[in-house]
Known about the structure:
Blueprint: H1 15-26, E1 40-58, E2 63-80, E3 86-101, E4 107-119, E5 126-128, E6 134-151, E7 154-185, E8 189-208, E9 211-213, E10 217-231
Antiparallel strand pairs: 1-2, 1-10, 2-3, 3-4, 4-6, 5-6, 6-7, 7-8, 8-9, 8-10
Amino acid sequence: MFxxxxxxxxxxxxxxxxxxxxxxxxGSAAAATPAPGGDATFSQNGKGADASSxxxxxxxxxxxxxxxxxxxxxxxxxxxxxxxxxxxxxxxVWMDRYTAIDAxxxxxxxxxxxxxxxxxxxxxxxxxxxxxxxxxxxxxxISIQQMVCVDKGTCVPGSxxxxxxxxxxxxxxxxxxxxxxxVSDDGTCRYDEAGKGYLRQASxxxxxGDLSLSLDYASITDGKSTYRSRCSEV
Length: 234
């Protein structure tokens, strides 16, 4: 069976921030980047939890269908330069899937991504335990937008649908401190990410839509992060 190279998931401190910024900038969390000239800044300060997983299943005809799924929850202060609105909490979901030829890894058809966020949920929807011990996300309905991508930079909006999500994170192992900064430039836009805070690995059990999940990677964090894009017209 074709073994894909899994994408490196963003730091747990910024996963929700990046998705939310793209929602605000483009109207879809699955869009690749903010448009040229659409400078934006997103910052968050508080507690977060994320979980993600990916894998491939053989179709028995020389191809395999691969998928990624992820969920994140945040409680604290979130602000952005696009809307100017401050949010107290947020839940995000993203799902990607594609089919590839086992022998070569070449794509069959177009990859499809779905993603969405919901902010300012009622008190008690997301509950963090002390010292990154656990997180509980009560059943919540989120609207996710489909994007069909013919390549990494060209995506077309598709249909949207509502999914229910719920889950529990349980901290495992020691708490560590992390600090980082990342800068990239694609010739049109410059992207800066920075963050610092405490992180604890976790186990996760929950649901996204009709999927019952025990995801490969999960963590609980407490810290600050900032994501900035600076674009110039070409």
